[in-house]
Amino acid sequence: MVANFASIVTNMEQHALWEPASTENLAINELKRYAKVSDFLSLHKWSIENKETFWRYVFEDCGVVGALGDKGIIEHGFLDSEFFPDAKLNIVDTLLKGEADQIVITEISESGAKKQYTRGQVRLIANQVAFGFQQLGLKEGDVVSAIVANVAETAFFALGALKIGAIFSSTSADFGTATVLDRFEQIRPKVLLVTTNYQYNGKEIDCLEKISEIVAQLPSLEKVIAIGSASSPYLSFSDWIAACNPKSEISVPGGFDRPGFILFSSGTTGKPKCMVHSAAGVLLKALSEQRYHLDVKVNDQVFYFTTCGWMMWNWLFLGLGTGAGIVLFDGNPLHPNPQRLFDIAEENESTFLGVSAKYIDSIRKLNLQIKESHKLTKLRTIASTGSPLSSEGFNFIYESVVSKVHLASISGGTDICGCFMLGVPDLPVYSGQIQVPALGLDVQIFTDEGAIAEVGVKGELVCRNIFPSVPLYFWDDASNAKYKSAYFERFSDVWTHGDFVEKTPQGGYIVQGRSDATLNASGVRIGTAEIYRITEGFAEVAESLAIAQKWDGDTRVVLFVKMAEGSVLSEELISQIKAALRLKASPRHVPALILQAPEFPRTKSNKLVELAVANAVNKVANNNLGALANPESLAWFSDLNL
User: Fold this and answer.
1) Strands (DSSP E) along 256-351, which ranges?
2) What 3-state class would DSSP assign to 335?
3) Nearest 10 degrees: CA dihedral of 610, 612, 613, 618?
4) If you placed Cys at 274, which of 159, 475, 482, 599 could pair as Cys (CB 3.0 to 4.6 Å)?
5) Rounded to whole angstroms, what are the CA distances from 562 to 535, 579, 605?
6) Cα–Cα distance measured from residue 175 to residue 479, given in angstroms and rounded to the nearest whole number
7) Radius of gyration from C-alpha coordinates of the chain
8) CATH class for domain 518-638?
């Protein structure tokens, strides 16, 4: 209770880092007027209590093309409810509506090569792709997949698949053979789009050998289409669509029960789970987030740094439905200089820039002064996700990047292809806090007993009501056993997401890490993010990772640190870190051991994998090393004798 009280006192003393200078012309204001409320808290309550009315409003206000029908939301719990069962739409009609001459896709390679496509061009190419699929005999419900760089052809391929009612699924071009097969062997795609070569960190990476191995082990494939090298043995994307000449617009309508995307869990505890998402459902959820929470407008330029193996690619892609243009960058965000993403944002007059919390932390450690080097005059919003953004990260953005910007820390996941908590443009931003729960979602923090936790008390992030981007089902999970096990074992018919969170006095949220990575010290649950915020405040510490080690019939906390270049972990620094944890958190946060590690294991989307390190230290087998970007990093931890 001491730590909780200290947390509350600290939050009460906080001053806003940013407050909106004006709240005019915000889409959320129109929604408030429609709901007859004046503040966000009342609006959120209204959106939960009137969810059918709310989601109909989103559909109509965002100009979604199609019809919802007369039937609304038929509730039978999370797994069996129906969203607008009479609806008929094809989401591509919404993604590509608008002026034909507006530039809606800007593609930038690491080398700086830039291509731009108008909406008219994208419509034409997407229709050619759809026709090409039909010529190959594909039909509604078939699966097409991609192992690709973040380039325009990937978006064209997805648009064409969605136009005919097929299901699209992608991985990044840097995924290894085993990692790709773990995913695609399960879903058995009929057509595969591949990147034959890409640039990263100033080097050209050849993928042909890897692609050959993958193709040989996917007997379901009927066609492989390639982007990149002209010497590829596969049919090139440009040659393929050159032979596709549809005589009319292709648009196969479907309902909210029609799958559009398959996304994958990280696969760190076994083969990745294949989450099947409704095309219409994730569109509606993304539009609600981008239009009302993040104020994305027609003609905006939205740039989110992502790869095609992360759900943020789908989120960015669905942003076309707002009428904004999207910017696709493929390469190392720190090459050839660490401010590369800001170079792109400035050059392309981005109104919205999305990055990972780890990226913000990286440039903070380098003390970049973006304010002095860049003119980000169009930038209204910076979004951060992937892991909790520290208070130091929040402060850095306002002190060293842009002072007049809405910094929206957002949190959700692949599981819902969207957010549980995110920003809102008409409320203040407080350091270290996610501003609000997502509209339409009854987000709560539960205690272990299933009661709603009080402010400042950490607990499980849950959602108590259905929403449109809940997965339709898991692939090859006929009895829903995997699905139920993933989210509904802890609390009956309440989505338990697996994040350890606390609510603040300001109505915001602080994510303390994943529930499966929480530490148990003397019977008290501690979120790893609580430790990282403090340890990574030391300039000498580049990154940290905490685990629970089985010890003497109980557990003890072991903290590993990766040092900044030129720094060493001295006894004096260890004492300083422990003192800071004791003072700023609590005595229970002080680890039994602090050790310097050479490297930490990461997923392909750059998230730290605490569980893999805990397994290695506790001599428990890690069964799916293919899910890691750098599995060799675990050898050092496995060899430890603590």
Assistant:
1) 259-264, 274-278, 301-304, 325-330
2) coil
3) 120
4) 475
5) 11, 19, 19
6) 30
7) 24
8) alpha beta
Residue whose structure tokens are 């050849």: 206
Residues of the chain where predicted confidence (pLDDT) is lower than 70: 1-13, 267-270, 521-525, 554
For the record, the structure tokens of 114 come out as 């830039």
Check the CA dihedral 266-141-66-324 and report its sign: positive
Tell me whether strands 325-330 and 103-109 are parallel, antiparallel or unpaired: parallel
| pLDDT score of 10 | 42
Half-sphere exposure of 554 (CA within 13 A, CB side): 9
CA of 363: how far to CAs of 32, 341, 366, 397, 620, in Å?
Answer: 38, 11, 5, 10, 35
Per-residue pLDDT, 8: 37
244 touches 212 (CB < 8 A): no
Q: How far apart are CA 242 and CA 237, in angstroms?
A: 9
Distance CA(108)–CA(117), nearest Å, equals 12
Pinpoint the residues of the chain covered by CATH 3.40.50.12780: 2-503
Where helices occur in 377-508 by DSSP H, the ranges are: 391-396, 481-487
Find the Cα–Cα–Cα–Cα dihedral 49, 51, 54, 55, rounded to 10°. 170
Is domain 2-503 given the CATH code 3.90.1200.10 in the classification?
Answer: no
3-state secondary structure of 265: coil
**CATH 3.30.300.30 residue window(s) in the chain:** 518-638
Q: 473: which residues sit within 8 A by CB, 6+ positions away?
A: 276, 480, 483
Query: How many angstroms separate the CA atoms of 320 and 59, rounded?
Result: 15
The tokens for 531 are 């430790």
Q: What is the pTM of this model?
A: 0.87
Instruction: Tell me the C-alpha distance between 505 and 456, whole Å.
Output: 8
Q: Are 135 and 90 in contact (CB under 8 A)?
A: no
Q: How far apart are CA 433 and CA 533, in angstroms?
A: 13
| Strands 191-195, 143-148: pairing kind | parallel
Three-state DSSP at 227 gives strand
Residue 425 · residue 294 · CB < 8 Å: yes
**Phi and psi of 574, rounded to 5°?**
-60, -45
First-residue to last-residue Cα distance in the chain = 31
Residue 241: other Cβ atoms inside 10 A: 22
**Which pLDDT value is given to residue 621?**
84
- Chain-centre distance of CA 164, in angstroms? 26
Q: What pLDDT shows up at residue 269?
A: 58
One-letter amino acid identity for 446? F
Look-up: residue for tokens 């969203």?
Answer: 83
- The answer to whether the CB of 459 falls within 8 A of the CB of 510 is no
555 token code pair: 């557990």
Q: What is the pLDDT of residue 283?
A: 98
In this prediction, residue 623 carries a pLDDT of 72
Res 1: pLDDT: 29
